[in-house]
Amino acid sequence: EVVVLSLLAYPLLRSLALQLHSAVTGSSLPGTHSIAFVNCLNEQIARDVARAIMDKKLAACVNILPRSSALYFWKGELEESTEILLLVTTRTSKIGELSDYVRSIHPFEIPEIISLPIDQGNPLYLRWIEENVPRD
């Protein structure tokens, strides 16, 4: 019973520690924020997915990058296509929810949804992310 309570308390303790660190140092810990990559077939789909992400407040910003070429294996065959790439700036704690949501609205059978933690950055920008993406 004590183990279960301590496991339930861990996310709360971690959250409090992160808030205390931020308040004392004026900066966030590496990995608190992430950039997610989401591929889209065309610009209209990219705009629709980006707008949906923003409407759900799952990101502080979504950049829509111009058309690029992609080579990939699909069902054993080498394919080539063009894609639009979304760069989604968010809290790392939102990546799971973001991934689930994008999979639910994305037309691809297996959309690319990957993320990388932000190790360092402009402290004011990182704070802006926190102000615009609600905590869990």
UniProtKB/TrEMBL annotation:
Keywords: Signal. GO terms for biological process: response to metal ion. GO terms for molecular function: copper ion binding. InterPro entries: Ion_tolerance_CutA (IPR004323), N-reg_PII-like_a/b (IPR011322), N-reg_PII/ATP_PRibTrfase_C (IPR015867). Pfam families: CutA1. Residues 1-17 form the signal peptide. Homotrimer. Belongs to the CutA family. This is CUTA protein. The lineage of its organism: Eukaryota, Metazoa, Chordata, Craniata, Vertebrata.
